[in-house]
Automatic annotation (TrEMBL):
Primary location group: membrane
PANTHER family the record matches: ALKALINE PHOSPHATASE, ALKALINE PHOSPHATASE 4
Lineage of the species this protein comes from: Eukaryota, Metazoa, Ecdysozoa, Arthropoda, Hexapoda
Membrane topology: Lipid-anchor; GPI-anchor
Xref: InterPro entries: Alkaline_phosphatase, Alkaline_phosphatase_AS, Alkaline_phosphatase_core_sf
Enzyme Commission number(s) from the entry: 3.1.3.1
UniProt source species: Cloeon dipterum
Keyword Signal part of the UniProt annotation: yes
Active site (record annotation): S114
Gene Ontology MF terms: alkaline phosphatase activity; metal ion binding
Binding site for Mg(2+): D64, H177, T179, E329
GO cellular component labels: plasma membrane; side of membrane
Protein's name in the database: Alkaline phosphatase
Length: 527
């Protein structure tokens, strides 16, 4: 094999499958290379067996806004950071055996928001955008007590708690932000993160999201809660997104309530304190006033990375006898995209993958289902004719006679519009856009990629997102599904919640495969 130089990076996924790739060596990608690549992958695929164990533990990773373009671009970016050309790289989760596509629309929107999509993923029902933990019968932004009660739906966390499992939620956003909050709260407006956001006529009907986490089921019974959002709990101003008017200090209330329950518990605000946690039954970690720092901003903070939080959460939850369910959100991929900050978004996606790889390393394929998906996509596009190995954050072609020069990664809309618009350009013969090769801040994390339509906040995208699964029954995710299917499949595989026992019948699958083995053995002896 003339192809491989140094086999420096191996990703171990299944016990029996190792995929290795070469680092810093430009392979000769002739026909032998591709034949070998194809054969290796077949051998790898053939080692994958249908697993019909039940999952004792479930970890659901949600890359907020991590559409397929983000996955491809961040895979290349990571490869390039490691000195490779980039295109041949894989994220760890891309080698999972179960892979499918997810239809993300909300009941009222073709292109969805995170509130409706999180309700689909976590409660198994689609609902309206901007609302979560309720079905589509309650008018958005309103509250009628009887309709509200009837509209409420339970989440995976509630199903798991009822089955005696421990539960956890980890996010890099405010813990009260739509995606994590849909796992425990029920609101007709995702902005009701603290009391002052709720119109006064509804405050008796519906609690704010932070209070629901601290006081109500399943929030109060969650064992591990890590994220940002101190201001929603009554501390200071943060980013000013929500300042409590009721004077409650909800972390103090959380501590009092856990004390009244008689469970060991601790509230922490720094990475150092988080690392000290060990045997507490319930922990609340709020590491920022608002959203946590982007990974590239984190250096001078006392905040843990998403990898640190994921590892700690799994360690704490692994103490559970009956298993656990953990939700981990890489929440700021989405925020970076909304600002057209492609470099920040790709870096967040890479860190998200590292958290997934850490979770795979700490758990068993026999008893732990790991699912990786996104709630929705973004308007990011990846195009032009850049050469192989071209800087993924660079330009779409590199031939001096080809004008205009533009970026490989651009957005269909967003605030990048203003950065790129040429001062005084009037259109037609007068080209409207600045030459990006002359923009001096292109390497900076807050550089905004091009957008031809102005939007203060870049928008989500409506195409399908991917889902990847490893562990018991990962093949249940092979196909194209409604997003609400995810919760049902997890319920079936984990043997808790409304689809409990539906995966029972697969015991016969096990029996059939044993039978087939015996028969093929017998027939081989006969021949
Ligand atoms: C709220 O209570 C926590 C303890 O849970 C305490 O550390 C914090 O200082 C309190 N915040 C305010 C604003 O009183
Ligand atoms: C925290 O995570 C970073 C990567 O994000 C890693 O380099 C570091 O070792 C981790 N720290 C601990 C204490 O696990
Ligand atoms: C074009 O390619 C040349 C040589 O490969 C390289 O030095 C240059 O930086 C590239 N220019 C752009 C705009 O990417
Ligand atoms: C599934 O198996 C459980 C035991 O694990 C049993 O209690 C239950 O009745 C079975 N349900 C069905 C529908 O087969
Ligand atoms: Zn968003």
């Amino acid at each position: 094999m003339k192809v491989f130089g140094v086999l420096a990076a191996c990703i171990m996924l299944l016990q029996s499958s190792v995929i290795c790739r070469n680092l810093k060596v430009v392979p000769i990608e002739d026909k032998d290379y591709w034949y070998q690549e194809g054969k290796n992958r077949i051998q790898n695929q053939l080692t994958k067996k249908l697993s019909v164990n039940r999952a004792k533990n479930v970890i659901i990773f949600v890359g907020d806004g991590m559409g397929l373009t983000t996955i491809t671009a961040s895979r290349i970016y990571k490869g390039q950071i490691n000195g490779e050309l980039g295109e041949e790289n894989y994220h760890s989760f891309e080698l999972f055996p179960g892979v499918g596509l997810i239809k993300t629309y909300n009941t009222d929107m073709q292109v969805p928001d995170s509130a409706g999509t999180a309700t689909a993923m976590f409660s198994g029902i689609k609902t309206k955008s901007g609302t979560f933990g309720i079905d589509a019968t309650l008018p958005t932004g309103e509250c009628d007590p009887a309709v509200y009660e009837a509209a409420k739906v339970d989440s995976i966390l509630k199903w798991a708690q009822d089955a005696g499992k421990r539960t956890g939620v980890v996010t890099t956003t405010r813990i009260t932000h739509a995606t994590p909050a849909a796992a425990y709260a029920h609101v007709s407006d995702r902005d009701w993160e603290c009391d002052s956001e709720i119109p006064s006529q509804y405050r008796d009907c519906m609690k704010d999201i932070a209070r629901q986490l601290v006081e109500d089921s399943p929030g109060k019974d969650i064992n591990v809660i890590f994220g940002g959002g101190q201001q929603q709990f009554g501390f200071g101003n943060g980013d000013g997104s929500c300042v409590r008017e009721d004077g409650l200090n909800l972390t103090a209330v959380w501590e009092e309530n856990r004390k009244a329950e008689g469970v060991s518990h601790r509230f922490v605000t720094t990475k150092g304190q988080m690392e000290e946690l060990s045997t507490e039954e319930k922990v609340l970690g709020l590491f920022d006033f608002g959203h946590m720092a982007y990974e590239l901003e984190r250096e001078n903070t006392e905040q843990p990375s998403i990898v640190n939080m994921t590892v700690k959460a799994i360690r704490m939850l692994q103490k559970a006898e009956n298993g656990f369910v953990l939700i981990v959100e890489g929440g700021r991929i989405d925020h970076a995209h909304h600002d057209n900050y492609a470099k920040l978004a790709l870096t967040e996606a890479i860190m998200f993958d590292e958290a997934i790889a850490a979770a795979v390393a700490m758990t068993s394929r026999e008893n732990t289902l790991i699912v990786v998906t996104a709630d929705h996509s973004h308007s990011l596009t990846f195009n032009g004719y850049p050469e192989r190995g071209n800087d993924i954050l660079g330009f779409a072609h590199n031939e001096s006679d080809k004008k205009p020069v533009y970026e490989t990664l651009t957005y269909a809309n967003g605030p990048g519009f203003n950065v790129h618009r040429k001062e005084g350009a009037i259109g037609a013969e007068d080209y409207l856009w600045r030459d990006p090769t002359l923009m001096e801040d292109r390497d900076e994390m807050y550089y905004r990629h091009f957008a031809p339509i102005f939007e203060k906040s870049e928008t989500h995208g409506g195409e399908d997102v991917a889902i990847y699964a490893i562990g018991p029954f990962s093949h249940l995710f092979n196909g194209v599904f409604e997003q609400s299917y995810i919760a049902h499949a997890v319920s079936c595989i984990g043997n808790f919640g409304p689809s409990k026992y539906l995966c029972n019948s697969s015991i016969s699958v096990k029996a059939v495969s044993v039978l087939v083995l015996i028969m093929s053995y017998i027939s081989s002896r006969l021949v």
